[in-house]
Design a protein that fits this description.
The complex is a heterotrimer of chains A (322), B (509) and C (373). With 322 residues, chain A is mainly alpha-helical. Helix content of chain A is 70%, strand content 3%. Chain B has 2 domains: 235 residues, 3-Layer(aba) Sandwich (Rossmann fold); 245 residues, P-loop containing nucleotide triphosphate hydrolases (Rossmann fold). The chains are: A mainly alpha (322), B alpha/beta (509), C mainly alpha (373).
Chain lengths: 322, 509, 373
């Protein structure tokens, strides 16, 4: 039984960031802007958040761990928005190729994190270390619920709950509000939105900025539970989130399912030597590392013909062309 | 005089083109006012100015006598101006109701509240006789219902001035009659209507007055009562137009194209797009496939020309089964193809006109050796065609196809296809979007081809065209050929019934 | 008169392309200087001077420029060739990596091949591996409509992990956590370049690879501009539907383009690790930067193969500058950031070029219409 708990807990650590970032990508793409910069924005967000944590911790400021984490999350979100604005400006105002602009940000992010990391780091290394003040041994009351308490409310981080909160909020925002209706119209038929008096530019900016917020948070949420230092990379998680988005066919609940599927794969990979059945098979760890990417290719192969991608995603909106 | 909208001396320039040159248009309250002109006469530009999508260089717009500035669709809506665009502006995965409320949503506690909107829409649809299903996704409803949704969008916003941009292009004659009734109904309820069209009988049927545009200039405004078709068309084109084509009797020869029980399926939904179609085309005859847009014409052509795989059935070209043949094999066997969309299929717009002229020939020994293209030969060949077919292009054979006018692009395609060794010409809407002069030119070329004994399969949405040049009419409805008619012994109305699927000929496949 | 106007316009067009690339470079450099200023104001000027001049400072540095430029000219050609046919090959990194592995594997294990044949075999193996790696996104796109950007990204990671695994399994040097050294005759001959590009006793890593890269660029130019294959591939890239209409198989076009593109990137991988500079494949979970650098190289040259030689030399030049900048304790990452900024602004540059082109066409059209009436 403890193996199962362990697996569920590990799965959470890997799937929650995927979920958050993929939901970010969803807002961007449903507004009509393809955002392959998710990876880069995650790096920026994680870097800013961890640097902030490190600064507080090394200054010796006594602060509640969860509060510090929340502040770091806000820092990551703000950084994400700033970076996403660069992508939004290129893709919306300048009508640039969205893939190229995204690639630029993906290249910039790790270089920036290493460069700045070395400048601000007294040790002169690029890694930024932090102490884990955020781990929850057991959530009061909830942690005592049988089974569920062991799975979700022990050995956890508040980021897990944040992830579920974001999922619900994202679903409601997309389907139940005026904003969501308008955003979806801009991603599928911007001309229709424009003729109904909706500013396609503004909605698309909003979509990309939301993706910046969520990717920034996602970067931090990825690093906190799985590591004690940040080394200018999120290991391709931004790209995996993109795959999750496609898996999830741009719909929040399916994205949840896809994120958990990938998270489980990762958890199995990370713990393969400790898991009874997999230990005997003894596949090389590289096999598990490759798995999510191979799975994505296979699923893409089967789903691309019927893809429900927003119709106008990736196409700059030009008022003159109707 | 009570004008609800006046556009006085509107001038709108695009780089190098004066789309509107001091045009004046006055719309009375409660009238149906037609705006007539050929493609490219400036009708759409003028309406875009009224709708706030373009800002004019000069001229004023008055609403009930007061000058107004319209900076965008929101301003237009505020002034009570609404528009049904030629290409519907509907989000395919939204419901009818969602499309109607988009942009003017009702919100309660931050969440969408659709119930009130639904009640209002249902009430409006009753008042104006606009039958719709508010909860159906737009991708599932008919073109007619999509148009009614667009009209409801305007009514929901309580617009007083309704612009209809070429609303009949996608409708059957019966649906057109229905629309005319709706428009008259709207007029009786006090709405003022601007009706953009290039179809003369529709104007005579429904409009009170008519303003005519030609090459960006206003020709004049006339009362429709007392106007004639001939008079209107002369105003529109600027010269007398013969509405009839002089055509010799046919003398059809051997069968060129034989189609047997052809079926094409949609790969994703599995729905039949073309269903069990059989017909043949002989040498020296023009066979026209008539029908409302979207009834399987495109897929039929794709299957015949090799762009789409047929699910079932056979196609024979000059006696040989070409059902599984590649595009190139079909071409070599004698099939030429003027495609439906000259920008999508017909031309590589960023290639020069010369490159485009050898699109199906570049691999032939005359134009290449050991895989290297012989540019001298290509340019010489293209120059010959440009000369012969009077294709106007600024920089000769090296002109980029993109920089040519639509008429000349079409001429280039026709030159290329007509000069291919062929026995069968598949021409899909060859006159779409062209002015009268170009249309006449193309019809003459088609008749010339017919005179040379080529078989011609013409796919057309324009009934005038169908009647004026075809020798046989095949009516396509929902992917099936529902009638094989003789243009001399069938009326517009009858043809319309077949096209709408409400009539079907015994014996037709 | 018309003639002059026309030529003026075309001149302007060519000029505007070059101009927009130079503008992107200028903004990128400015950004870089700005970064140096923030990081360390006192050394910024000296560091920046090193960055932009040291590639020319002596013959050895110039040799290093050639050495760094060689692989990225190849990946630039890879991205550019795919770009000419309407595909965005962001997978050059993965193709580069598998090419590198196969070249090194042959170079280490095929000791039975004498002299130059070993080098040739290694280069061919790299091209083949790159071609196979490129063909997968091509096949997926052609037959199953899979977006090549996404599948290329996936192939990059699969390639990286696979190569790390294979290096460990087959040609592992435990002490350096990297691949073993290749046999000396697997290396591309230096062709005397080491004797020219040297600073006293310190030789540069310049080698015959640069000539292979230049030959590849010329070959790409000839294929695209002079042959029926190029005519077909460009038609597919410019208008896939029209190509199909004309009987050109767009599916075959996509696959062919990705195979050639992949082979070019794979060859790039070989040229880096068979340079004789003592470089080995490190077993780290990081995607190869040389592959991504192909993107700015192709972008700056607007996919023109001859232009790619020069933009590749430029990025190589910057790399040498970034390397030497470490003298002032600046991390060479500055170069990557500058390159990223250049990519960002080149995306705009394409737009500026398109805008000028459109303007020119409208003028042409209006001139024609005025003349016609």
């Amino acid at each position: 039984m403890s193996t199962v708990y362990f697996l569920v807990q590990q799965t959470m650590f890997f799937s929650i960031p995927l979920l958050i970032v993929a939901l970010g990508g969803m807002f961007s793409e449903r507004g009509g802007v393809v955002n392959i910069a998710l990876e880069g924005i995650m790096v920026f967000g994680a870097f800013a958040g961890i640097v902030m944590i490190d600064a507080v911790q090394s200054a010796g400021i006594a602060i509640n761990g969860q509060l510090l984490l929340l502040l770091a999350i806000l820092t990551a979100a703000a950084t994400g928005v700033l970076v996403s604005l660069a992508h939004a400006y290129a893709s919306i105002h300048m009508k640039a190729d969205q893939v190229i602009s995204g690639t630029a940000i993906n290249m910039l992010a790790p270089a920036f994190a290493i460069f700045v990391g070395r400048v601000i780091n007294t040790r002169g290394t690029q890694q930024v270390r932090f102490e884990d003040w955020f781990h929850l041994e057991k959530v009061p009351v909830l942690g005592s619920i049988p089974v569920l308490g062991d799975m979700l409310f022990t050995n956890a981080y508040i980021t897990t709950y944040l992830g579920f909160f974001i999922l619900i909020a994202a679903w409601a925002l997309l389907y139940k509000t005026k904003f969501g209706l308008r955003l979806r119209a801009c991603g599928d038929h911007p001309q229709a939105a424009d003729s109904a008096g909706i500013s396609v530019y503004k909605m698309r900016y909003a979509g990309v900025m939301l993706s910046g917020v969520l990717a920034g948070i996602g970067g931090l949420v990825f690093v906190i539970p799985t590591s004690r230092e940040f080394n200018a990379t999120v290991s391709g998680y931004g790209f995996l989130a993109l795959a999750v988005l496609i898996f999830g066919q741009w719909k929040p609940l399916r994205i949840l399912a896809a994120a958990f599927f990938f998270g489980l794969l990762k958890a199995v990979a990370a713990g393969s030597s400790g898991l009874p059945l997999l230990k005997d098979i003894a596949l090389p760890s590289y096999f598990y590392k490759m798995m999510p990417f191979i799975m994505t290719l296979i699923v893409l192969a089967f789903t691309s013909r019927k893809s429900q991608a927003p119709r106008a995603a990736g196409i700059p909106y030009d008022k003159g062309v109707r | 005089m009570d004008y609800i909208i006046e556009m006085n001396g509107i001038t709108k320039k695009f780089p190098g083109v004066i789309a509107n040159d001091h045009i004046t248009l006055q719309l009375k309250k409660g009238e149906i006012h037609a705006l007539l002109g050929e493609n490219g006469a400036g009708k759409s530009t003028l309406m875009s100015v009224l709708f706030g999508l373009y800002q004019p260089e000069s001229g004023v717009i008055l609403k009930e006598g007061n000058a107004v500035k319209i900076n965008g669709p929101n301003d237009a809506t505020r002034l009570g101006i609404g528009m049904v665009h030629q290409h519907f502006k509907l989000v395919h995965n939204f419901t009818v109701l969602e499309n109607i409320v988009l942009g003017v949503e009702t919100v309660k506690h931050g969440l969408l509240s659709m119930e009130e909107a639904r009640e209002k829409v249902v009430a409006l649809s009753r008042t104006y006789g606009l039958e719709i299903d508010p909860d159906a996704p737009v991708s599932d409803i008919t073109v007619g219902m999509q148009q009614r949704t667009e009209i409801l969008k305007m009514l929901y916003r309580e617009n007083e001035i309704l612009i209809f941009d070429e609303p009949t292009a996608v409708l059957t004659p019966q649906e057109i009659a229905e629309l005319m009734k709706i428009m008259k109904n709207l007029k009786e309820q006090g709405k003022s209507i601007l009706f953009i069209t290039h179809k003369l009988n529709e104007i005579l049927a429904v409009a009170d007055r008519c303003t005519v545009l030609r090459k960006g200039k206003g020709v004049g405004t006339i009362e429709v009562a007392g106007a004639t078709k001939e008079g209107l068309s002369e105003m529109m084109v600027g010269r007398k137009v013969s509405l009839e084509m002089a055509k010799s009797d046919i003398d059809p020869g051997a069968v060129v194209l034989d189609v047997r029980e052809l079926t094409v399926k949609n790969k994703i939904t599995g729905k039949n797009l073309v269903c069990n179609v059989s017909f043949s085309v002989r040498e020296g005859e023009i066979v026209c496939v008539a029908g409302i847009d979207g009834n399987g014409q495109s897929e039929l052509v794709y299957a015949l020309t090799g762009l789409l795989r047929a699910e079932n059935g056979q196609v024979f070209l000059r006696g040989k089964d070409i059902t599984r043949a590649t595009v190139r094999e079909r071409g070599n066997r004698g099939m030429a193809h003027i495609p439906e969309d000259r920008h999508k299929h017909g031309l590589v717009l960023d290639y020069s006109i010369a490159y485009n002229m050898v699109l199906q020939h570049y691999f032939e020994p005359a134009f290449q050796r050991h895989g290297f293209i012989n540019y001298g030969a290509v340019y010489a060949y293209a120059a010959g065609l440009i000369e012969k077919y009077d294709v106007r292009c600024g920089q000769g054979v090296k002109t980029a196809a993109r920089s040519m006018s639509g008429g000349n692009q079409q001429k280039a395609i026709i030159a290329r296809e007509a000069e291919r060794e062929h026995k069968l010409l598949v021409a899909v809407q060859p006159t779409r979007g062209l002015d009268v002069g170009a249309i006449e030119y193309i019809h003459e070329r088609l008749l010339e081809e017919r005179g040379k004994g080529k078989g011609i399969l013409l796919i057309s949405l324009e009934l005038e065209e169908v009647f004026s040049i075809s020798d046989r009419i095949l009516v396509i409805y929902e992917g099936q050929i529902v009638a094989d008619l003789d243009p001399k012994s069938v009326t517009y109305q009858e043809l319309g019934l077949y096209m709408a699927g409400s009539k079907r000929k015994e014996g037709a496949s | 008169m018309n003639e002059i106007k026309q030529r003026g316009l075309w001149g302007l067009l060519g000029f505007s392309s070059a101009l927009s690339s130079f503008a992107a470079i200028a903004v990128g450099l400015l950004f870089g200087f700005f970064l140096l200023l923030i990081a360390n104001a006192t050394d910024a000027a000296a560091g920046f001077r090193t960055l932009i001049t040291s590639g020319f400072s002596d013959l050895k540095s110039m040799g290093q420029v050639l050495y760094f430029a060689t692989p990225i000219i190849m990946t630039g050609l890879s991205v550019g060739f795919a770009g000419k046919t309407g595909l965005f090959n962001i997978g050059a990194t993965g193709q580069f990596t598998v090419g590198a592995y196969c070249a090194v594997f042959v170079g280490v294990r095929f000791s039975f091949l004498p002299g130059l044949t070993l080098c040739l075999a290694a280069l061919l193996a790299a091209m083949l591996a790159g071609a196979i790696w490129g063909s997968i996104p091509g096949l997926l796109k052609a037959w199953l409509n899979v977006n090549e950007v996404i599948s290329c990204i996936m192939m990059n990671y699969i390639g990286m992990y696979l190569v790390n695994y294979l290096v460990i399994q087959t040609i592992y040097n435990h002490r350096h956590n990297a691949s073993m050294n290749v046999l000396s005759n697997a290396n591309v001959p230096r062709l005397g370049l080491d004797r020219i590009f040297r600073d006293g006793n310190i030789v540069s890593s310049a080698n015959g690879g640069i000539f292979i890269a230049i030959l590849a660029a010329i070959a790409m130019y000839v294929i695209l501009e002079k042959t029926t294959l190029g005519y077909e591939l460009k038609a597919c890239g410019l208008n896939k539907n029209a190509a199909q209409y004309a009987g050109i198989s767009a599916k075959r076009g996509i696959v062919t383009a990705m195979v050639i593109s992949g082979a070019l990137a794979g060859l790039g991988g070989a040229l880096l690790y068979l340079s004789g500079a003592g470089k080995n494949i490190d077993v780290v979970d990081v995607l190869a930067q040389e592959g991504f650098n192909g993107i700015p190289v192709a972008l700056l040259a607007l996919n023109n193969p001859i232009g790619i030689i020069f933009s590749g030399l430029f990025i190589g030049y910057m790399t040498v500058g970034g390397f030497n900048m470490q003298l002032y304790n600046f991390s060479p990452q500055v170069v990557n950031m500058i390159v990223a900024v250049i990519i960002y602004f080149s995306a705009f540059a394409l737009l500026v070029k398109g805008f000028i082109q459109k303007l020119g066409q409208r003028e042409k059209q209006s001139g024609k219409e005025a003349g016609g009436e």
